[in-house]
Amino acid sequence: MARPATIENAVMELLWDEGEGWLTPGEVRARLAQDLAQTTVATVMVRLWRKGRLQRRPRGKGYEYRPTLGREEYAAARMSEILEVVSDRTVALHRFLELLPEGDREGLRELLEEE
């Protein structure tokens, strides 16, 4: 069975690919490439909702869900959360820059110059 974080990522990717639409756990399960039980998908989606990553609203006897943030906004929020736990943000950012491909570093330079 896939690790829970891997299933969470697969669910988030699927929901982002769906755009603004709302999906039930059953609809998500039917679209996932992994063969998972309906209860597993529902549990993962409830966990994502509790973490604030998904919105939910009633639909029939259950709920339907959609992401609270777009893919890029979510990535930016996660990067910010990660930086909150380091003691020296400058060092962490420097190490991050070392890992970026040159094209991404150049894009970041351009963004910073616009600020």
Structural write-up:
- The protein has 115 residues and is mainly α.
- Helix content is 63%, strand content 10%.
- The chain has 2 domains: 64 residues, Winged helix-like DNA-binding domain superfamily/Winged helix DNA-binding domain (Arc Repressor Mutant, subunit A), CATH 1.10.10; 44 residues.
- A two-stranded antiparallel sheet has the order 1-2.
Key features of this structure:
mainly alpha, elongated, Arc Repressor Mutant, subunit A, two-stranded antiparallel sheet, 115 residues, single chain, 6 helices
Helices and strands in order:
Layout: H1 4-18, H2 25-31, H3 38-50, E1 54-59, E2 62-67, H4 71-84, H5 89-99, H6 102-114
Antiparallel strand pairs: 1-2
Helix pairs in contact: 1-3, 2-3
The rounded Rg comes to: 18 Å
- Structural class, from secondary structure content? mainly alpha
Tally of separate helices: 6
Largest sheet: 2 strands, antiparallel
- With strands numbered from the N-terminus, the spatial order across the biggest sheet is 1-2
Specify the helix fraction band. 55-70%
Amino-to-carboxy terminus distance: 46 Å
Q: Output the CATH topology of the largest domain.
A: Arc Repressor Mutant, subunit A
User: Which term fits the overall shape?
Assistant: elongated
Q: State which percent range the strand residues make up.
A: 5-15%
Number of domains: 2
CATH homologous superfamily grouping of the largest domain: Winged helix-like DNA-binding domain superfamily/Winged helix DNA-binding domain
Overall mean pLDDT: 91
Which CATH architecture of the largest domain?
Orthogonal Bundle
Number of strands: 2
Give the ordered list of helices and strands. Answer: HHHEEHHH
For the record, what CATH class of the largest domain applies? Mainly Alpha
